[in-house]
Amino acid sequence: MSDPVRLGDVLAGMATPGGGGIPAQPGAGGTTCNRCGARADWHRTIRDKWILIELGEWPVGAVPPGKRWRVAGEGTAVNLGRAQPSDTCRICHFDVCPSQPAPVGSPALLAQWQKNAWG
Ligand SMILES: [Zn+2]
Questions:
Q1: Which residues are within 5 Å of ligand 1 (an ion), measured at CB?
Q2: Which of 3, 23, 35, 92 is at a distance of 20 to 30 A from 115, taking alpha carbons?
Q3: What's the CA-to-centroid distance between 35 and ligand 1, angstroms?
Q4: Closest CA to 50 of 59, 40, 58
């Protein structure tokens, strides 16, 4: 118990998919949501969490600020906040998963939620 945690071990842990109880789905491409069965992609965020990104692209203007995502070149999911670096963005599946309450404030997200709910 007296061993200090070495920085190298911390960094190694951060780089290891599956560590810390996060889903081990790195680079697996498509998967299905275990709540609703919809297809989506796992991506690691810059905060080292894994989220499901909905397939396809959405017009930035149709997605509320804070729910806009972009997948960077190395596969990292980045929340865009209020930024609009391009015409389209990705959305998080958890915002449109029918196991969650219907999204409010965005007809586009609501439509996708309904699509997922009805298969
Ligand atoms: Zn789902």
A1: 33, 35-36, 38, 97
A2: 23
A3: 5
A4: 40
The CA distance from 61 to 6, in Å, is: 45
Q: Domain spans of the chain? A: 26-118
> pLDDT tens for residues 26-77?
455 688 999 999 999 999 999 999 999 999 999 999 999 999 999 998 899 9
Q: Residue 96 Cα, ligand 1 centroid: separation in angstroms?
A: 7
- Whether the Cβ atoms of residue 32 and residue 51 lie closer than 8 Å to each other: no
Q: Quick check: 69 and 101 in contact, CB under 8 A?
A: no
Q: Which tokens sit at 103?
A: 């999204």
CA of 33 to the centre of ligand 1 (A): 5
